[in-house]
User: Fold these one by one.
Assistant:
Number 1:
Amino acid sequence: MKRNVAFLLVLLAGVGAILVSERREQNTHVSANAVLNVAADVQRDLTRAPMRLTRLSDEEGFASATSLQQTISRMGH
Amino acid sequence: MLPRCDFSRGQPCHSGNRGSRSYSNESSDKCHIRLISAEQFWGLRIYTVLPLALIFFFVYSQLATQKQAAADDRRLHFDTVVAYLGTSTIVALAYFQFPMDWVVTAWAVVVFSLLAAAQLTGRVLFLYQGLLLSVGVLSRGLIHNLFGASYFTGSDWTGRYVVLASAVVILFLTLPFAFGLRNREARNPLTSTLSWRKVAEIVARRPEQLIFFVPTILLTLMLALKMRAGMVTVSWGIEGVLIVLLALLAGERSYRLTGLFILLACVAKIMLRDAWGLAPRDRYVTFIILGAALLLVSFLYTKYRDTMRQFL
């Protein structure tokens, strides 16, 4: 009895999902992009960890920005 | 046949879901910590993926019975594979459905549910899954929320504390289930001869250790990284006292040693750093609160000396 009820619930959920998705007509592009997204997120987080541990002071940040600006303007001329 | 599952991030970030993101501007970072509306939450992803998880768990419940017809499948561990697929589906759904910073909290809720399921159904498989996912919560919390956190999400109260603290609280709330499962698992003898399975069994016999240390590590590091420099020692002192109180309630030696270690770390930090480097106001507050914390712990040790001896 319990098993039949559980089966009916699962069946109803599945059929309900099909009906709703057919009614809404949202086409989903199936690809491996989701896995790539996960890999990209993890890579991004991993690369940010060292930055978090070696933060620059405001003075150092301004100094490197000024240096970059000077280099770029020299390259422009 | 079920509709195709949508694990892609199709919607733009301003809708609340995790859509296409640019990592460099403030608005995109801020939207990661905003909760999504109910209408967006119960969208395509939920109703295409959730039935799959239901099907996996239903099949698992049928295979895990003691009936002869399922005996061959059990020998090949199909029941375990299907149960792991069901949980993985929910974990993946939580990863894609919630804003990035809140994934850790969603996973903590799954850990809570898995340990509750293990306790209620008596199936040790859910305990293994819960412990495995608690390691996932630790990794995610460390890599994304603490060390990978953006300057922008870390600038307000929600981004600094609420997100990770909610995961920490949920994991601490899981402890009663972990203690219940410890009492049950401790009665079972070790069965595995393989070294990695033996390690897994030993960890599963003491689930309260992992479920305690994961949120404690996250909380300690969160306080160290997110608190104002002058208040780190104070917050660690309060954490140490709370952990010693928890140790007294739970009667657990490792918890008590952890609380004492944190308090000793506070004393060392005060002597080596805070006394020389803090602003006067922060220094007074730190000394007063840590002094009070140490006195309180000393009082508790004296009052509950007999209880302490029992779990030495």
Note: The mean pLDDT of chain A is 84.
Number 2:
Amino acid sequence: MTATSVARPARGTRRERAAPGLPGGRVRSGTGRLRRERVGYWFILPTVAFFVVFLAYPLIRSFYISLHSWPGFGPEKWVGFRNFSAMFKDQVWRQSLVNTLIFTAATTVITTALAMVVAAVLKAGWRFGVVFRVAIFIPALLSLVVSGTLWGLIYEPSFGILDQFLRSVGLHELSTSWLSNSHTVLPSIIVVSIWQSVGFFMLIFYAGLQDIDPELYEAARIDGASVVSQFRHVTVPMLRTVTSIVVTLNLINGLKTFDVIYVMTGGGPDHASDSLTTYLYSLAFGGQVAGAIPLIGYATAIGVLVLVLAVIIVSAQLAISARRRVTA
Amino acid sequence: MNNDTSHADDSHLLSRRNFLTAAAAASGAAVLGACGGGTGTASGGGSSHTGGGKTGKKATLEVWSWYTEDAPVWHYITSEFHDAYHNITVKPRTFGSLADYSPALESAVSGGSTPDIFAPATLALSYGESGIALDLKDAMGAHFLDGFFPSINKEYSANGKQYAIGWEAQMFGIFYNPDIMRQAGVDVPETWDDLISAAKTIKSKTGKVPVALNGNPSNNAADFFLPLITQASDDPNLVYQLDQQVGGKKWTDNYVVQAFEMLQRLQANHVFETGADAVTYDEALALFYTQKSAMLFFGSFIVPGLLTSAPKAFNKLYRVAPTPAWRPGGRHWGGNQAGAGWSVSAKSPNADAAVEFLKFIYEPARYALIMEKSSAMAATIAAAAKGKNPIVREMASWIKDNGCNHILFGVGSETAAGNAAAAVIGGKLTPQKAAAQIQTQVDQARHA
């Protein structure tokens, strides 16, 4: 017998080669498994191809561009990390970063809290609960571009209904040009964003509330807990997982917010409402200001930083949520 | 001063029969002109075109712009051109606004698929010097460009080459509502001091906004501010020198500060509506045609906008006057040039056909007709003088003596000047700080 013949395993019958764990004693040969695995690769190929073409390559290419000075035409000029270091000397970038963080924090905290409270109130069984639920959800059906345009008209100081209302009830001193006042412009946009999104997150909380065991409330009531105490000690803890999802979505939405700001103010006045994304857009495409020479390299560097920022903040939030779940 | 003009009718709407009749006449005139040895803008010969003519290779031309006022006319232009040049098909694509158009064009250029003919906006020189836009002086012949307003040829030229040709000229002025002016008992202002005085009277007697102005996006604030520099200095070259940073001129120049001081005075005297720095084009327009403002500061390209937005009665009501002067008897410098122009892709395999198409649409009679139908101001002196819209024709007559730069082509200039002007209108920057901010931002952009 040759060495080769010794090394070769006996072929045996199909039943003899049956894998121990397979139901019905079905047989799986090595080549069969390989064939099945190959088929599996074919199945995931479209997803992998999509990922490579639309995510991986653009990410790598973006990082490459961020290391260059490039107006979008002509040769790219290598500048290393100069685009990144330039951000810290750029006053508008600093202002945009602060605006983004304020916008993200405000929309996350207010939207999450408001959506949870509204969902709990509606779940408590208002007579017109369905009507309110629909009314609160309707803004979520509109695009932010439409909402932004509508609210732009509402805030308009000369014929907008907000200032007209304030003046008609004698509150002249409160009427202002909401979108051109650098102190009121960001809060005004935050209000629109919350108005738009609270209905959607309310629905998520409402769905989460359906899973809370009614016996928990019954036990709390027997123990003499007030409605507020029930909300605080039963509802809020039981919605922790849902809350974590809502907070994560709000954080991501806040960090990448663009449309509502772009439509309402274009980042103005004088960058008072610019977020990182509207600022990078105006650098890359001139925004609504004709004639700006595109700074694609610098804008891409800001885009890369937004991605890094989002990963860090969302990871931190998820880690905190996970730790709370463990300690609870 | 009173510059009443009889008003435009709404005959801009086009019937196919009218257009084809007039276009046939235009073609006939062009043929006769060609037989006669060349006439002005349409007759210039190209330098070295090898294809794309009536017997040339097949070509499809992509034509991109944001010139919505021309959109209704395109169908007729392209079909008429196709009748004359069977081998060339023209595919026009009109974007809704410059804000929509800019990203699309920049992406196309970055991706190496520049349209054959495109509106370059203020990137004309950058594209030209990067080899993306063709030198049209060479391609179409210098003689072809003779009939254009000189200010328009100058804005698209650098180092003896011209990278775009003007399509729609523009001139800024004060549009006003005679009824409100009469009600307030004020005349059209001759100077800025007159305007400040009139504004107080308008506010006290009618409660209306004196002048509607839109500072969002901020390049509209620059449209108002930049001619003030020319007014303060009486030097029509100064803005160009500041823009290109030549002749030792810097944005901290005393005349720039004086222009900002005037802007600040106007803002402090409530000449504009509250929050003008955040008001958009549509909002300013609405203030004017809903008769909540007595005046509107804008360019001649607002005329097509009012025809489509404002009631017919209002289109017959409003009038226009030149931008107020710096001092009594001074020149009424106002923003001129052409924001709308055409470039040809230098890398297009159909560059010859593109040049042929441009010559076709600029044939004098045809071009005048297109401008008339879109109620736009023609970029050639002859066609502008023939314009049938009285408001547009009136404004065109100011260009020769009062037209000055208001579109900046230098790196970083337009954004920096617009931001600073909007900030002064919003009361957020002093004149000195605004001037210094422009220079700082321009320096940053030039070294980026």
Note: Chain B has 21 helices and 14 strands.
